[in-house]
Amino acid sequence: MIWTDFLYHPFWALLSALLAFVVRRQRRGAWDPRVCSVQLKGKTAIVTGANTGIGKFIALDFARRGARVIIACRNLSSLDSVKEFAERILEEEKALHILVNNAGVSGLPRQITKDGFEVSFATNHLGPFLLTMLLLDLMKRSAPARIVTLSSVNHWRGRVDFSHFHGDNITYFMDNVYNHTKLHNVICTNELARRLQGTGVTANSVHPGVVMTEVMRHYPLIIRCLFNIIGFFFFKSAEEGAVSSIYCAVAEETEGITGKYFDSDCSLALPAPLARDAALAVKDFEICERLTSKL
Ligand SMILES: NC(=O)c1ccc[n+]([C@@H]2O[C@H](COP(=O)([O-])OP(=O)(O)OC[C@H]3O[C@@H](n4cnc5c(N)ncnc54)[C@H](OP(=O)(O)O)[C@@H]3O)[C@@H](O)[C@H]2O)c1
Questions:
Q1: By CB distance 3.0 to 4.6 Å, which of 184, 233, 247, 253 could disulfide with 20?
Q2: For 209-277, what is the HEC assignment?
């Protein structure tokens, strides 16, 4: 017997199966939307990017609770398109109680939109930022109302450099750009919450977990294969990934909570230090306001 035989011992297969079983059991958080009896009859909700992935299950949950659900698909990276959509909502809807900024993209190559923004920043941050700002008065009039923005635990690896918005000084490697955009999500949501104090509109950001969706569609085939193989055993399903967002948007437990970051198991979590810097938040928010209002 040589020592490498040890590596082929059935013990390892058993251990992997046991580990996969334990992780699967733990993927379900403490809060279960199926036993939450909150009804949304008479309420209106918008979920962006709800044609697939996590957003689809968020929208389905709201619809099951009786909400009128508007799913906002394509194109958040075009600010004209965001404006058109918001104008239509303001014309046609009398109230808006829930806005879930879910749409997002990762791994896109460098591209500058016709508005002059880096495409991932436009899609993940500036588009949802503008949409939220345009719908804010309607939400205030509809209060109590909730805004939920899907960020990611990856925001911990993001950096703030305002030249990124225009595609400058960015290193395109793996999920770098995505991480920066997800950090801006948390920073601006916190500042929005501060500005909304006393209005009855709350704003929080969430991490959905590592979720088996199409989020890796822009990565090389080998990375997608690895993601899917590992994900099959260990990652959340899209339905499970929707839970923390649904918790923020509808649960009685989160009523009145604002300016917080929720983890994928629905617990409150501390965001990265940059996302707790109040002065940076004011600056970031003002820059995003200026960039999006110019157009
Ligand atoms: N999956 C994860 O592990 C994970 C982890 C942390 C955070 N998140 C966040 O969760 C959110 C949902 O992601 P997912 O995992 O469900 O990914 P997904 O399956 O790729 O779904 C993303 C959604 O965003 C939409 N979208 C992309 N670009 C858009 C644009 N320019 N305009 C409008 N909609 C656009 C997509 O629409 P099309 O189908 O038309 O492209 C799709 O509906 C994202 O914000 C993501 O950053 C996901």
A1: 233
A2: CCECCCCCCCCCHHHHHHHHHHHHHHCECHHHHCHHHHHHHHCHHHCCCCCCEECCCCCEECCCHHHHC
Q: Which domains does the chain have, with CATH numbers?
A: 37-293 (3.40.50.720)
Among protein residues, the one whose CA lies closest to atom 21 of ligand 1: 53
Whether the predicted model's global pTM rises above the 0.70 cut: yes
Please list, in sequence order, all residues whose beta carbon lies within 8 angstroms of the beta carbon of residue 134, skipping any fewer than 6 positions away: 82, 83, 86, 87, 90
Closest atom of ligand 1 to CA, residue 52: 43
Q: How many other CB atoms sit within 10 Å of the CB of residue 277? A: 15
Q: Known catalytic residue: 178?
A: yes
pLDDT in tens, 128-172: 999 999 999 999 999 999 999 999 999 999 999 999 999 999 999
Edge-to-edge strand list for the sheet holding 44-48: 68-72, 44-48, 98-101, 145-150, 201-206, 261-262, 268-269
CB 63 within 8 A of CB 50: no
Q: Which of 213, 230, 262 to mutate to test the pocket of ligand 1 (most atoms within 8 A of CB)?
A: 213
For the stretch 247-258, pLDDT in tens is 999 999 999 999
Q: How far apart are CA 216 and CA 104, in angstroms?
A: 11
List pLDDT tens digits, range 31-84. Answer: 999 999 999 999 999 999 999 999 999 999 999 999 999 999 999 999 999 999
* Rounded Cα gap, residues 2 and 275, in angstroms: 53
Closest of 24, 18, 11 to residue 232, by C-alpha: 24
User: Mean pLDDT for the chain?
Assistant: 95
Phi, psi of 217 (to 5 degrees): -60, -25
- Counting every residue, how long is the chain? 295
Closest-lying ligand 1 atom to the alpha carbon of residue 78: 31
214 lines ligand 1 (CB under 6 A): yes
